[in-house]
Amino acid sequence: MTILSGIDDTPLTKLLAGDTPVASMYFDQRPPGDVPVRWRTVARLLSEQGAPTHTIDALAEHVLDAVPGPGQLAAFAQGDKVTLTLTLPEADAAYIGRYGALPHLKPLLAWEQEHPARIVATLDRTGADISVYPAGSSEPQAATVNGPDDEIERNAPGGWSQGRYQNRAEDSWEHNSIAVAETVARLLKRFRAHVLFLAGDVRALQYLEEHLPRWIQTGVTVRRLSGGRSEDGSAARQSEQLVDQTRQIVAEQNAALLAEFAAHVGTGGLAVQGTDETFAALAAGRVRTLLLPTSDSDDRAWFGPAPTDLSLQPNPLIGAAGAACEAPLEDIAIRAALLTDADVRIVPDEEATFTIAALCRFTPTAA
């Protein structure tokens, strides 16, 4: 699953199995004063949808333990166990409570989309400080690269030997940048990140960009930030730039996907829209990116055990192992997308010209 690279796939896959009902809760951790009132509202919503008392009680413990916090708590429970919890700093919704056959992942996917996996490398002539933000994270993991060479000064003695000293210094800077490039490439692959921010010494950055593998140059969005490794007071400004540029990159990604969708919809099947066509593409495993507007739909559908078992009608043939289960249409579409290695993209309502749509890997007639 590409969209949830920052989350352990094992509990998520169990949630998406559809064999045990799931309680999905999103709860604002920040204002502690009215927590009991807001929690009673969520508990009532879950109860009205059929959630048993022991499931609601299990979630209540996590709410009380997590307040106050930096944003929104996302928690998913089955039976008397909370199987997955995440904190979504600065998420907006005050509370959501859903209970049914499938987890309600759309708010979580929207959060991760706004916080893609990204790496920040700040270089000087000796190496780099690297911050890794896994998908869906606002807090980095830190790493430091100290290059293999420590001869970095160019102001060596004058005379006939000065050129030799300068060349050795330049070689050292380049060797150190190569070490940084190798580490950056490894981390991009490990965290499945497609966004790289670079800052620091201009010459070191030039060497780094020369030695980045071609797949980074062609397949990763690379942007520059201000600031360096020294304590020069630039950290706050760099943090602001990181937030602003990440937001801009996400908007550009949305625009690119919508442009691709507009270019292919109605021209042969590489882009589809509407429930009938999108469900047919999901059932065939053709979807590359599922597109959904931000606002939730009230439509319902049915699904069976396999990821591609889905229908707009309670079809008795769906899922040879048992009867079809009813769930919100969007939750079923998200399940089918994630379990067939498709991405999910949440599109702002003002930019979405559809209720549900998809970009496909291949046309219906291509195998």
Q: Tags for this entry?
A:
60s Ribosomal Protein L30, Chain: A; Translation, Eukaryotic Peptide Chain Release Factor Subunit 1, Chain A; 367 residues; 10 helices; 3 domains; 24% strand; 38% helix; Nucleotidyltransferase, domain 5; 4-stranded antiparallel beta sheet; 5-stranded mixed beta sheet; 16 strands; alpha+beta; disordered N terminus; globular
Structure description:
The strands form four sheets. This protein has a five-stranded mixed sheet with strand order 7-6-5-8-9, with helices on both faces. It has a four-stranded antiparallel sheet with strand order 3-2-1-4, sandwiched between helices. Strands 10-16-11-15 form a four-stranded mixed sheet, with helices on both faces. The chain has 367 residues and is an alpha+beta fold. The chain has helices spanning 9-16, 35-48, 53-66, 106-114, 162-190, 202-211, 214-219, 235-264, 275-283, 329-339; strands at 22-28, 71-78, 81-89, 95-100, 118-124, 127-133, 141-146, 195-200, 221-224, 271-273, 287-293, 300-303, 310-311, 325-328, 343-347, 357-360. The model is unreliable at 1-8, 150-158 and 160-167 (pLDDT under 50). Keywords: Hydrolase. InterPro entries: Bact_RF_family2, eFR1_2_sf. It comes from Kribbella sancticallisti. GO terms for molecular function: hydrolase activity.
